[in-house]
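ugh ok fine here u go
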Amino acid sequence: MDEWKRLRRMFFFLFFGIFISMVVVVKVSFDHTYKIVPQPIRNIHRVSHTCPQEVSDQTITPLRNTKHLLVSAYMDRRVKDFDIRIIGIFKRDSIQPLKCVFCCAGVFPNTTTPATIKEHPDNFGFAFITTFVMCQIPQNCSATHVSLLTKNDSARVPIWLPIRNQKTAGKEEIKTRFNMTVCISNLFEFNNALQYAQTLELYRLLGVDRVVIYNTSCGPDLDHLLQSYSQEGFVEMVPWPIDKHMNPSHGWLFSAHGGDMHYYGQIATLNECLYRYMDQSRYVLLHDIDEIMMPYEHDSLQVLLDALQEQLPKVGVFQVENHIYPKKPFEESKKGPLPEWRGVPGFNILEHVYKWDRLSGFLAYKLIVQPRMVVQTSVHYITETKAEQFLIPHELGHLIHCPVSTPYVKPLKDIQVDTRLWDFNDKLIPNVNQVLRRLGLLRLERQS
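structure:
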């Protein structure tokens, strides 16, 4: 009897196991054969994928099927009927109609809008010119990226540029990160580490928060120095490989200097810096590394500008007189007050205390601007703005321009001694020495 019960239990569990296995097999087979496929999402604005297949991370991007170059794209609704401003470098003899195409929050729409191409008024006879391509965003498009198409390029996925300054889409007040930013338009082929260290440290003392340098190439000592300032956050190094795309000129006039574009694309970099810091900086200073905007009755540039702005609230452009301070030839056999600097590449700006009269004509000024009040700039003057402009009296402040050389020599009677730079020596010299020593650039100390 017990044996019969044991057999019944064994058959029961065997039958139950076989039944469960058959149910599982049938369920899997049914699911595989009749699996429900979800319907595609019909509302394209909910598609989860992003439209860019190729987003440019370069500062200079060739535009397909053209001889043109794209630099950057910014939201700019200050011009009626337009939303986007693309800064470009175009070949003047081959400018053709273009279309704007947008990535709308992850969607690549089929619609395009016509592009309006505005050439910068200054080309100085060169083949390439700075351009501004204005685009209107299509309705119901939350644009994140933009590109340009030619008529032969409509079916291809473009190389996208990210749209920057998205906060300027409205008229809200923007809280800036920096009070004062200096834009150094071009750096190429130099290794003048001493001059850069002195100038950057002097700008710190004058109240500058950020220095932006567009770098094509530089020597090893200067590169080491600038990388240190960049890691610290005081300097932004923007790569500017224009020499990979053309033969840039070393000068400003084609008939005198040759090349494809004015002074390594200086006008393009100045405008790019203007828009790059439009939402980030209250003031932007536009000039070269051998020029220092020096206040004469105030301790800093910020105090000077605050005083002027209080009296002139509608002024958005301050012109600064450009005065030449050539280097007096010192005898190399004589040791100066800081002989350790003699081993550092570059010249000593503190020797530039011999002042000529200011430059004349359109070269006479450089600029300090409130960037949101400026639409377009050249090197020495603003080409488009609705703001009032004001020339700072030279006794309040002017440019100390320290060229490496001058085409002629003035008689002594026409030269004044101006030692304003030396007023900062007590702080400037120790700060410069600290930087150079930390980076191992004080070679005479190293050799002793």
